[in-house]
Amino acid sequence: PAVEYGLDAPFEIEYHNSIPSTNDRARALAAEGAEDDVVLADEQTGGRGRLDRAWSSPTGGVWLSVVCRPALAPSRVSLLTVAASAAACGAVRETGIDARIKWPNDLLVPDPDAARGGRKLAGLLTEMEGEAGKVSWVVLGLGLNANVAPDDLPPDATSLLGERDGDPVDRRVLTQRFLERFDALRTDPDAARDAWREHAATLGQRVRVTLPSETIVGDAVDVTDVGALVVDTGSERRVVHAGDCEHLR
Ligand code: BT5
Q1: What is the Rg, in whole angstroms, of the alpha carbon atoms belonging to the chain?
Q2: Of 50, 41, 5, 49, which is closest to residue 20 (Cα–Cα)?
Q3: CATH 1.10.3470 for domain 206-247
Q4: Which candidate, 132, 150, 122, 112, places its Cα nearest to that of 55?
Q5: Which residues pair with residue 38 across a beta bridge?
Q6: 106-110 vs 100-102, strand pairing mode
Q7: ipTM over 0.95
Q8: How many whole angstroms from 246 Cα to the centroid of ligand 1?
Q9: Residues lining ligand 1, judged by CB closer than 6 Å?
Q10: pLDDT tens figures, 76-109
Q11: CATH code for residues 2-198
């Protein structure tokens, strides 16, 4: 069923109490020609992370996927991930929580006691289809641990409920604010990159980025206008478009 959100953005929301994966449902809608549809669920029974990892999605979270048809070259689709992570970070910060963005796709809450200097609050999964150098659709999945008990999440994860000492957030407002911010940033790469930079946990860090074929260690010094990470290894500057990133200090 469609939910009326009174959004100041062009999205139409399809709500599910429980669904295997909002990204899978959004991909099916995209294949039928949908644009700016949002699939939102209270619970996912088969939530996915990147590289076939599982994503825990108990009731109380914000699990959603947006179908986009951007006028972007495939090499620039990562801009949408930059826009979405900046938008999610901004919406979360409005709830009073000091979230930071970890390249390429995580929101963290800093915590010196955590193994990697922070606990994971949210993740993004961007999937696309296209041919002949043209993007047909992009599905942008956001998993945000809103009103989920930290005990129901993997170790090193956190939720807004936990960070706010048990005080739940209004998920409707959170979702609305995310979508409005995302809509404003998705067509404005400069603003998206500025918003990203403002709350980036990764810039200035020593990082290890694992790629399928190699591992790069160095200082994260910048993000490019398509959202790639620039790593200074001491002998050269490498531009990394995707990969798993670990903060080393
Ligand atoms: C991600 O993958 O961070 C992308 C997650 C995207 C989830 C959304 S929910 C709506 C939409 N529908 C879907 O089916 N997916 C998207 P990755 O970077 O691969 O991180 C996955 C890893 O994070 C796992 O291997 C766990 O270690 C950890 N993890 C799993 N569930 C988590 C959670 N709820 N909170 C924090 N960490 C989690």
Answers
A1: 17
A2: 41
A3: no
A4: 122
A5: 13, 66
A6: antiparallel
A7: yes
A8: 16
A9: 21-23, 44, 47-51, 53, 55-57, 63-65, 105-106, 120, 123-125, 141-143, 145, 153-154, 157
A10: 899 999 999 999 999 999 999 999 999 988 999 9
A11: 3.30.930.10
